Amino acid sequence: MQTEYLIVGQGIAGTLLSGELLRRGKEVLVIDDTNAAYTSSKMAGALINPVAGRKWDCSESQEQFYHYALSYYSRLEQDIESDVLTKLPLYIFHPNGEEHTLFALQERDNVYLSETEHNFWIEYFQGKYGVGTIQPVGLINNRKLLHTWQTILRDKGLLIDAVFDINALNIVANGIDYKDIKADKVIFCEGASGVSNPFFSSLPFTENAGDVLILHIPGLPSDAVYHYKDVRLIPLGENRFWCGSNYRWNVSSLVPDKQWASATRLTLEEWLKIPFEISDHLVARRPTTAGQFPLIGMHPRYNGIGIFNGLGTRGFSSAPFWVASFADYLSGINRSVKGYDQERFNRYF
């Protein structure tokens, strides 16, 4: 079997990269363990938010990612003939007067921020210090996107359902050999597994894990995202909500953090006026880096070996920009805007 690009992994990185290369007329083959249930891409909140942190600020790069991502996913919906992007408000329930004041100060200079004028939330939430709005945010139906693209790849004969065996990879004069596959390049988009990839042991991965609760909240409107303290509720449909998330730097065990779940339940009981039920508690590893700068590039010493990883907690926001920039580089196109930088990547080696 012959191909130009062998893509290892079909999380958000592998999905968008394989799609971008195919759109440019390149030959692609994807290898993925489709039986892996709890990957970071499948468990992510997948929110595209124009502001960051409790200071509600909006950096130039953050706004660039935001606008690029909304446009990119809108076009992608047409390509895959499936609705995966929803624009909706994010309601911020101020936990105290100090944060309310900080939000109000930022609101003057930030076009995405406003104080919520209507009191729709009184029936459902406690809101002693008021409620701010960030609008619009984009919500990606990540499981639908990944499954739809998996189906498209499988129907085209471009997906191999398997765990990738790094020991079967051989670098040859004109590319790489992997079992019965010959490819010009292999790009590793393997998420948290990239930490143990021997070709990239010098890269500054800072792997962590995150817990998520799946809640059943009958009656809570599903046309918005809700945030209070460190808890965020993202609608999943059928009265279900994604609730998360935390950061665990000790990832030797992926046993659910019961202490975090108990603390989150207490916060929910303090915040919600209506009954809720925890139906599931999930945990997965995240591939991140110091400074949240992605690890993207072609290995400077091993011909044909590349990586697209380390997108971090805002991966669904930043991935479209980085994947287009990287695909330009692979296609021999120089972008006029700041993006992928192979020379920067080479400094890790």
What does this molecule look like?
By secondary structure, the chain is an alpha/beta fold. It is 28% helix and 28% strand. The chain has helices at residues 12-23, 40-43, 60-80, 97-107, 142-155, 258-271, 315-330, 342-346, and strands spanning 2-8, 28-32, 47-48, 85-93, 113-115, 131-140, 159-161, 169-172, 175-178, 181-188, 208-216, 225-228, 231-237, 240-244, 277-286, 295-298, 305-309. The strands form two sheets. Strands 3, 4, 5, 6, 11, 12, 13, 14 and 15 form a nine-stranded mixed beta sheet that branches. A hairpin with a 2-residue loop joins strand 8 (169-172) and strand 9 (175-178). Helix 1 runs parallel beside helix 7 (315-330) and helix 3 packs across helix 7 (315-330). The longest helix is centred in the N-terminal third of the chain and has 21 residues, at 60-80.
Largest sheet: 9 strands, mixed
Would you report the number of β strands?
Answer: 17
- Tally of helical runs: 8
The average pLDDT is: 90
Q: What pattern of helices and strands is seen along the backbone?
A: EHEHEHEHEEHEEEEEEEEHEEEHH
Distance from N terminus to C terminus (CA atoms, Å) equals 32 Å
Poorly predicted regions: none
Overall outline: elongated
What is the CA-based Rg, rounded? 21 Å
Q: Percentage of helical residues?
A: 25-40%
Strand content: 25-35%
Structural class: alpha/beta
